[in-house]
């Protein structure tokens, strides 16, 4: 465990919105006013007064007097208030409860709130009544709260400062709080440092004056190298999201405590190199190229999330060699692409692109010429993976015959018939649709020769990747009339944002349906992706679980026992033995160990007992061929 830097400074905590997520008086008002006809309006008035007081806009006494007058609370409301506040202790403070219990003699709660509700809440954290300095209520004979004890220094303006003078602590004092009056303790020279505590609320006037800003108590413990419950403060994990994934992604990462930055469009290589420093998690879609150079500039990257299916835009091996785990959403938008493809087949078979354009120009051309039903026609699916296979089922349901070609052996669904060669497929299909992935070997996979093999009048669909088709050859096959039409959703070069214009030789050709890479762009797919990918990444960060990573050895780990060592190394013989030698030399008790390798890296997870000295961690970092090492608890 971390050694304790001794002696610990005195820690002076604010209570409302720091120790707890809420303001005690707001909650009391909420409880006392239940059933009151103007409840919402009165609560809002009280909140506004609290905020004005905390931001230093009105004096504390004025704010307090006004709030109490509005309240109408009685003694009997206090027990439910305490019960509620116990459930609203700030997450990171609750998480580090052991720290409070261990160092309770160095901790004071100094608050303009009220002893009646503060004392019982902090008592659970080992903080005794003599370390709580707060106001006290006054009551009338009927038990109604009438105000606060005017003799208490905390009931007056500048009360916290006077309270600190009275406390007369003999050693460094650090103040942690969200309010202006907390900062004033430092301003008055009665504290050595003021930490603006922003886990629950960030007040700009307070943050601006702070020595440090604490998004969580973990951050404080981490900075001071004090014993903490988590191995690393989550607020230090920076997420950069590009290309507009659904807002749910940002929501999930933020809820986990990560800092999230977003950039609406894609970034080119140079721009990404500028932005990637300090980023722990990068989220992209199909546009952003994550090259070796980008990965070299990424000094803190743990994981990349492709918020889509394709991962050809990421140099997966280079990521792996640098210990960066990549996750995608392998089937969240599958159905959306399938529905688009089916629609396109029907639309092209009925010459809709042309007819629609002519109607918009005022031309009425009612004719059956060149139009056909898709029932009974042969659909040739190239790439019988998740999308290809699902399209196979849907196409059969509308009466098409399905043939497919894949370089891998695949389960034939329904009545689909496998073709042994691409040629076999191309020569018999009325409609050819591409659903292969974008691996580099597939560059210009379909070109002049392949189009020539297709039946005269056949239709061609590319919803896979732009570079797998020789676009000038496709344009020529359409212009010559050899192909009857095409639907293309993906292009070798796609605009970076919606403000850039689209240039391509397919523009203006007859019976060609062009779409701006929207195969997976449906509300359902985007929402699913924005949950699937963050969930995988958060799990990887928290537990080391690599299930469904596209470049890491997949390990589904059991529930963690005590501390977990995550070791990523180059896959050369002997590394596991060296790790275990280090552990044995330091007498570390292994509770469980899991290893998986692939051609480039080895991934070893070791669960060990909580008791070990820090040198073992350094020794493990120094094991030869280590790429990345982290400890989780
Ligand atoms: N237009 C859009 O918005 C979208 C496009 N896509 C693209 O669709 C691709 C396919 O997606 P899934 O079906 O989910 O992937 P998948 O990995 O399940 O299937 C791809 C299949 O293609 C096969 N394949 C690869 N190269 C081949 C070749 N040269 N000849 C024959 N078969 C080959 C593979 O063996 C595999 O079975 C993605 O990689 C992505 O590039 C995916 C989603 C949305
Ligand atoms: O899922 C895929 O591979 C796609 O092509 C969809 O890409 P997008 O997220 O729309 O940039």
List keywords for this structure.
Rossmann fold, alpha/beta, seven-stranded parallel beta sheet, AHAS_small-like_ACT, 24 strands, 4 domains, binds 2-oxo-3-(phosphonooxy)propanoic acid, 633 residues, binds 1,4-dihydronicotinamide adenine dinucleotide, 18% strand, D-2-hydroxyacid_DH
CATH class category of the largest domain:
Alpha Beta
Summarize the amount of helix as a percent range. Answer: 25-40%
- Beta-strand portion reads 15-25%
- Count of domain modules: 4
Low-confidence stretches: none
Beginning-to-end CA distance, first to last residue: 11 Å
Rg, rounded, reads: 32 Å
Protein model, in words:
The protein is an alpha/beta fold. The chain folds into 4 domains: 10-223, HAD superfamily/HAD-like (Rossmann fold); 237-327, Rossmann fold (3-Layer(aba) Sandwich), CATH 3.40.50; 334-521, 3-Layer(aba) Sandwich (Rossmann fold); 553-632, ACT domain (Alpha-Beta Plaits, 2-Layer Sandwich), CATH 3.30.70. 36% of the residues lie in helices and 18% in strands. The protein has a 7-stranded parallel beta sheet with strand order 16-15-14-17-18-19-20, with helices on both faces. A 6-stranded parallel beta sheet has the order 3-2-1-6-7-8, with helices on both faces. It has a 5-stranded parallel beta sheet with strand order 10-9-11-12-13. β11, α15 and β12 (303-306) form a beta-alpha-beta unit. The longest helix has 21 residues, at 523-543. The radius of gyration is 32 Å and the shape is elongated. The protein starts with 9 loop residues before the first strand and ends with a strand. Bound molecules: 1,4-dihydronicotinamide adenine dinucleotide and 2-oxo-3-(phosphonooxy)propanoic acid (HPV). 2-oxo-3-(phosphonooxy)propanoic acid (HPV) is lined by residues 285-287, 307-310, 333, 517, 519-521.
